Every structure is written in C-alpha cells, then in structure tokens.
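Worked example 2:
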Amino acid sequence: MTGTEARPPITGATGVLVLLGRPVEHALTPVIHNAALAAAGLDVVYIALSPRPETLEMTLRGLIAGGCRGLCITIPFKTQIVPMLDALAPSSEATGAVNTVVVGEDGRLTGYNTDVDGVLACIDALPGSGREHGVIIGAGGAGRSAVAALEQAGVRRCQVLNRSLDKAEKIAADFAKSPMQVEAAVLDDQGLERALSEADLLVNTTSVGMYPHGDATPVPARFLHSGLGVADAVYRPNPTRLCREAAEAGAATAPGTHWIVGQGVVAYRLWLGAEPDTAVMHKALADYFAKSDARSGNN
C-alpha cells in the first residue's frame, strides 16, 4: 500500500492515539502514524495535544478514562510523566525517561523509551560498521537514550558533551558499570574539537537547528570531517544545517527522519501488536517536506 489510501470514516468506534508535548506544532509523528494507520486500514487516529505542565496528570487521566489506546510523550514531559505510570519497561528504567505509554487491558500504564530504537535506526542507516568512538551532544532524556543505544551498538567509548557539565557527569556515573567507557565533557569549542578529532560517530540529541531556527547548528563546520558518521535527532528542516555541513565535509549522515521512523515503528508495535509499513512512513515524511518546500520556497 502507498499510504495515500483514504482512512475509514471517524466514528464513535474509532480508536485514538495521542501525542503529549509542549509545543507540538512542529511534531511530525502525526504524519507518519496516520499514514501507516491508513495504509493498514485500521480504524485508529493519532492526534497531538499540548497541555500545560501543571495539567499533565489531569490530561493523562482524562485521556485514559476516555478510552485512549496509547500515548507518545515528547519534550518537556519525558521525565515528568514517569511517576504517573504504573510500571516502566527496561528501556525506560535504563534511561529514566518515557516517550511511549502502553495502556493495558486492565488500564495499567507502562512506560517505554523507543528513542533508543530511533538512535539505533540512525546508526543502521550510516554506511560501514564497527564504529568505536561516539560523541553525544546533549545530556537530556534523548542524550541518555543515545548512550544506551551506543552501548547496544557495541561502541567502545562514548563522550557526552553538555553545556551543564553536571548533567553529563550524571549520565556517565549512571553508566559506570557499562562495558562502554562513558565520559563527560563541557560542550564548548575546545571540548568539541578535542572529542570530534578522535571520534567516528556524532549524535546530536539537542533541538538546536530545529525549525524555525534552521540556521543554527550544535557543531561548527570546522570540527566536522570525513571520518565521521553523523546522526541528528532534528528532522525539520530536512536536511538540517548540521547534516548539510557534515555532508559537505565528506561525512556520512543520518537525518532525524530515521530517528522518528525508527522509534515510531516500535511504538506502533507496542500499541497495536502489528508492524507498520516503514516505506509508507518515510514517504509520508518526504511528501510532507516536498509540500512544505513548495509553500515556503525552502526548508
């Protein structure tokens, strides 16, 4: 199926999946999930809501009471929602963050972190294999997920760079027993130059460069080189300035579209017990960006 099929009409029997974040205007998970749901002929829709932080638990309880089938959680709620859930899957226990909530038949809420799968999808999209030295930009929930992903990918050494050193040091301490060597450093020009000169993998987990601030980048172009594989969590604009300048430096790149589809596939599977069509998801994003470019004349 192409993903262009008309979905079943929305009725009182239509299932609802919900994204919670603030803001959510930039979010493209509704694009990929609704395309996949329509292609599968499922009577389910995916919508985005933006509650105020102080109303998050009230919003969550109301949605569950109203029959919500599952939720996706994004910034700034990935850690705030943790104590509101009944259980955490190992992926969330390891990262301390939740981006997917599964509603059990008994109404119990279990939190998962599929950002790990998103990072792994980016790494898999990069040519070559056996990357040994990774640098992660950012020490938030996504940065913690990236460390877990690099550990699963067999990376031997990982450096976490963050403007607030204490947050990077906390991640390094939490992964002290990992077979991967995890180090913390300050995110500044000196730290970037030192870390990237030795690295063969760079993962940006921050929102720097995200629409409407597409002219920004977390890494100055002078520190990028052909020996790097670069993965960016930011998927809008596509490509980001980071990916564009990395490619110009001869580096392989994996844009955030791989991340969003990679984590979306696992969330879809957890909610519905089915496999989405990843080609449909990628096509939905490509079509969205093409239409957006046509309207604006750029990314």
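The chain has two domains: 15-113+259-296, 116-254. The longest strand covers residues 15-20.
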